[in-house]
Amino acid sequence: MRIAMVGSGYVGLVSGACFADFGHDVICIDKDASKIAALENGVMPIYEPGLDALVARGVSAGRLRFGTDLAASVKGVDAVFIAVGTPSRRGDGHADLSYVYAAAEEIAGAIDGFTAIVDKSTVPVGTGDEVERIIRRVNPAAEFAVISNPEFLREGAAIDDFKRPDRVVIGGDNARGLEIMREIYRPLALGRSPIIEMSRRGAELTKYAGNAFLATKITFINEIADLCEKVGADVQDVARGIGLDNRIGAKFLHAGPGYGGSCFPKDTLALLKTAQDHDAPQRIVEAVVAVNDNRKRAMGRKVITAAGGDVRGKEIAVLGLTFKPNTDDMRDSPAIAVIQTLQDAGAVVRAYDPEGQDQAKKVIDNITYCSGPYEAMQGADVLVVITEWDVFRALDFKRVKSLLRTPVLVDLRNIYSRDNAEAAGLEYHAVGR
Hints:
Blueprint: E1 2-6, H1 10-22, E2 25-29, H2 33-40, H3 51-60, E3 64-67, H4 70-74, E4 79-82, H5 98-108, E5 115-119, H6 127-138, E6 144-148, H7 158-163, E7 168-171, H8 175-184, H9 186-190, E8 195-198, H10 200-231, H11 235-243, H12 264-277, H13 283-306, E9 315-319, H14 334-344, E10 348-352, H15 357-360, E11 368-369, H16 373-377, E12 382-385, H17 397-403, E13 408-411, H18 418-423, E14 427-429
Parallel strand pairs: 1-2, 1-4, 2-3, 4-5, 5-6, 7-8, 9-10, 9-12, 10-11, 12-13, 13-14
């Protein structure tokens, strides 16, 4: 199949590269000429394990190309995927759909022959209807179908998620459009990945509902962690105890500093705005958003308490800045609020992240960025682990103690054993333990 992918960011580039690996002919389009030039030279705009090799393989095979000319690129294709950004709109929290609608308008004037126009971006319910109206207005004679095909990719594991998905959701009612989607995803059907067809609006809502539920699991276990600390229980024991119930499951029951990233914060907020517009309040999700926002600064206060209640003039070493490991994504990372809380209290912050420091410099000011974890903790009064990168899991605790001015370790991801840390002479603080 011939596929055009409009948008070469996280979703568009991963999806395009994977489709090309399936054997389809793919062109990834982006208005950012510097990004396209970099991709043509093998330089990835994001950090995602294995993506550079996957892209190189597609380019070498002649199945993956890049370009900036949308109009020329979509002519004659079977499907055009819209994979542009939908950030929260400044001021009211609604999803900003201006990039989606602009792409739809440009696509409308360029398609020839029947084309499936696929919303891959995360969009609120009813967006596909508006995309269809735009295309019919711009090009009344166009033959097309608008399909919703939400992505369910985890940053850091996106390629595996795309190639071995829990499910593929396809929303639409046009027979020709659905047949094109079945053919595009046929390689996954052969691997027995469930392909679920539903209404377009149902597919749009499925994405938001799924993310809101996962965000709820994270926020639930974080509040249970607070209760564990008060009553003398261990949240990891509790999470295992409930996670082994097949109706609940263990995923996303890991206590920590709250969720962040490109999806959960904006998608929960967009779901709330959609619910308000339709007079269908989502009280549980409202509470999830509020609790998660408060938790991030609460984790900063937890560090201050571990430091004796006062961090003014003290040096705090922070390991991990991205919202999760195996990505360079800093969007809504808990590290931002934790560090701001420490700085507001007068602390001096030194930090290290294996991949996220360039992005962190754009959103966190007045900290010292170090070249490694041990450099960051040299002479620090407190060591804080915010992101659970693998490189931090096997720290030499004896070396850690020798480098710190005071041997205080605050583990906001519960990746260490209290016994091992304390055996090395460290004062260990965890979450919910």
